[in-house]
Write a structure and sequence with these properties.
6-stranded parallel beta sheet; TIM Barrel; 26 strands; Glyco_hydro_3_AS; beta-glucosidase activity; Beta-xylo-glucosidase; globular; single chain; Rossmann fold; 3 domains
Length: 730
């Protein structure tokens, strides 16, 4: 250690340390490095932060797929600000988030960690997340890490670490798009390549990605960090080199500045390369320069130590829990509400609450939440000896969980004192035992209504059904959960299904037979309160799907922004067995109230690049009797161009709250450069032609249509990303 170390891996996220203990260890490490190493350079400590800072005592927000369902980029920035405050309080200055992966195949286990299927939505949410972490100045913020660069969520067969088959134009227009915006709009400070390969080239050795596109084309000035053990993959998994030295050389020359989580390859193997002259020292110097620059920008040299006493004060405070609660409320998507079964009255005689996720605090949270990950580390230590973590042999719930509200607890807190709440687990998430069915059926028969809470268990290890490495071959409810629902349905008691899950599930029978369905995703520490609010009408759901829900796994991929020749089968249109349409489309979500869309207005019927932009406005009115939220969605379509274009492209959105009878005007300011695309010569251009404008409540529920024309000549343009939106009262 006399030469120091550049980074420290997850002091809080891979241990049982309290915030105060984490600070103490961080300060001891920095003190040693500054006082006892040759150059006295402080280390950069990194942590995970997918659904909150992944550490003991930190706030557990809804998992990312749920956050995406809010369609509220402003609340995403607030969430990231809390993550920043908690991480800074313990000395961590780099977050390994956000995921900017576009996912089209929900068989992929990490679907839950993403913002969904649409490049604009992923971009908009990701940019806000980065701004909340980094702030205007890194001295006040922490380094955000955009991952996984690039195409990781489009893997072959939905399998983790599998190749991604992406043509060049699609790579640039869809999968690179959120990353490019993150670099240019949010000044992203760190990038992490994916584990996978593109066209035979693993991302961690791709000079095209990490040098030509990222640094030369986009002007990225931050650091590139490896995914965990990904440099070793070049040797042990992808087999593109014959030894450790070869892997280190490939990664460093491609542009990977930092090896995570250790220095297995950038330690002795790299040193041997330098001493033998097998690698140009300029590659080392450039990587060192970039890492030092980040450390200077963070202020680590001036202020490497943290106040130990203040750490606990900003962990899972009432204000932070209220934000987690607000995000959980906004993330809930009402999929079905036949005959207005919901909301329920609070004074029903009896309610049966049934299902493996009804009273499980463990299953309320997503992969890369602290309790899930500690559980995984304990298991991996016993089996694979991957992590030598400072953990006891076992941990009690009180050691690893912040207070978490289950759906059962939320319901019990809502109903009147005269309402009997009956509970039965019914079955487990994954195994096939039906031993609990009898009890569940009996209480359903006694109740006025049955709330059945089913779905996933998220995590890395066996027994989990969603999360990293937990890829699936089908999208049905795991185990015998659907059979449990059928058994409850057959009692004749009205049934409400609540989904606590990490990926879209094929629930065609449930969608046909069950009168009310709530998609709550993995709603975090306050999820039970939020779900109960929706069930009893204390909160009117306004979440929208960030990813399409297929009828069957055989439809995949079923994303909305397909090309004119996609999304259908030749001649007959549908499959032999079923429609090509999803069960529930991208952008879909119901409310307990109704909204009208009127007065679509486009500022210019003919626009050119000299005009720079076009304003598109629409009036939205709450025509129902309850206050509610609507997500107003702007889509466009261009045709008769030199290359094919998607049938719809999201170009803007705004979540608004309207009282009963209230009306507001939403104005989208769309830059002409946002209508660019890559032509046959792979140049980013705008071409003249008609632009169809569609405003709606989902990608399928288009309420108003109009068009404008781009006039003039085809021109090469610079990209613009974000559509400005403002709201005016009527």
């Amino acid at each position: 250690m006399s030469y120091g170390i550049g980074q420290i891996t997850r002091l809080g996220g891979a241990s049982n340390l309290s915030p105060r203990e984490t600070v103490r260890i961080a300060n001891q490490i920095q003190k040693f490095l500054i006082e006892n190493t040759r150059l006295g350079i402080p280390a950069l400590i990194h942590e995970e932060s997918c659904s909150g800072y992944m550490a003991k005592g930190a706030t557990i927000f809804p998992q990312t797929i749920g956050v995406a369902s809010t369609w509220n980029n402003e609340i995403v920035e607030k969430m990231a600000s809390v993550i920043r405050e908690q991480m800074k309080a313990v000395g961590a200055r780099q977050a390994l988030a956000p995921l900017l992966d576009i996912t089209r195949d929900p068989r992929w286990g990490r679907t839950e960690e993403t913002f969904g299927e649409d490049p604009y939505l992923v971009m908009r949410m990701g940019v806000s997340y980065i701004r909340g972490l980094q702030t205007e100045s890194l001295k006040e913020g922490i380094v955000a890490t955009g991952k996984h660069f690039v195409g990781y969520g489009n893997s072959e067969g939905g399998m983790n670490w599998a190749p991604a088959h992406i043509p060049e134009r699609e790579l640039r227009e869809v999968f690179l798009y959120p990353f490019e915006a993150a670099v240019k709009e949010a000044k992203l400070s760190s990038i992490m390549p994916g584990y996978h390969e593109l066209d035979g080239v693993p991302c961690h050795k791709s000079k095209k990605l990490l040098n030509d596109i990222l640094r030369k084309d986009w002007g990225f000035e931050g650091i590139v960090v490896s995914d965990y053990f990904a440099i070793s993959q070049l040797y042990e998994y992808h087999h593109v080199t014959s030894d450790k030295k070869g892997a280190a050389k490939l990664a460093l020359e491609a542009g990977v500045d930092v090896e995570l989580p250790s220095t297995d390859y950038y330690g002795l193997p790299l040193r041997e390369l330098i001493e033998s002259g097998e690698i140009d020292i300029d590659f080392v110097n450039e990587a060192v320069k970039r890492v030092l620059k980040i450390k200077f920008e963070l202020g680590l040299f001036e202020n490497p130590y943290i106040n130990e006493e203040k750490a606990v004060e900003i962990f899972d405070t009432n204000e932070q829990r209220e934000l987690a609660y607000k995000i959980a409320q906004e993330s809930i998507v009402l999929l079905k509400n036949e005959n207005n079964l919901l909301p329920l009255k609070k004074d029903l005689k009896s309610i049966a609450v049934i299902g493996p996720n009804a009273d499980s605090i463990r299953n309320m949270i997503g992969d890369y939440a602290y309790p899930c990950h500690i559980e995984s580390l304990l298991e991996m230590r016993e089996t694979d000896n991957v992590f030598n973590t400072p953990l006891p042999e076992s941990l009690e719930a009180k050691d690893i969980y912040v207070p978490i509200v289950t759906v059962l607890q939320g319901i019990k807190a809502k109903v009147s004192s005269n309402t009997e709440v009956l509970y039965a687990k019914g079955c487990d998430v994954l195994n096939n035992s039906k031993d609990g069915f009898k009890e569940a059926v009996e209480i359903a028969k006694q109740a006025d209504v049955a709330v059945v809470v089913v779905g996933d268990k998220s995590g890395l290890t066996d027994g989990c059904t969603s999360g990293e490495s937990r890829d699936r071959a089908d999208l049905n409810l795991p185990g015998v959960q659907e059979e449990l629902i059928k058994a409850i349905y057959e009692t004749g008691t009205p049934v409400i299904v609540v989904l606590i899950n990490g990926r879209p599930m094929s629930i065609s029978w449930i969608a046909e037979k069950i009168p009310a369905i709530i998609e709550a995703w993995l709603p975090g520490e306050e999820g039970g309160r939020a779900v109960a609010d929706v069930i009893f009408g204390d909160y009117n759901p306004g979440g929208k799907l960030p990813i399409s829900i297929p009828q069957s796994v055989g439809q995949l991929p079923v994303y909305y922004y397909h090309k004119p020749s996609g999304g259908r089968s030749h001649w007959k249109g549908d499959y032999v067995e079923l429609s090509t349409k999803p069960l529930y489309p991208f952008g879909y979500g119901l409310s307990y109230t109704e909204f009208s869309y009127t007065n679509l207005n486009i500022s210019n019927r003919k626009v050119s690049l000299r005009d720079r932009m076009v304003e598109i406005s629409v009036d939205i009115k709450n025509t129902g009797t309850l206050k509610g939220d609507e997500v107003v969605q702007l889509y466009i379509h261009q045709e008769a161009l030199s290359v094919t274009r998607p049938v719809k492209e999201l170009k803007g959105f705004k979540r608004i709250t309207l009282d009963a009878g209230e009306e507001k005007t939403v104005i989208f300011k769309l830059s002409i450069e946002q209508l660019g695309f890559y032509d046959e010569n792979m140049e980013y251009v705008v071409e003249p032609g008609r632009v169809d404008v569609m405003i709606g409540s989902s990608s399928e529920d288009i309420r108003l249509r109009d068009y404008f024309e781009i006039v003039g000549e085809k021109e090469k343009v610079a990209k613009k990303f974000i559509t400005e939106v403002r709201v005016e009262n009527k």
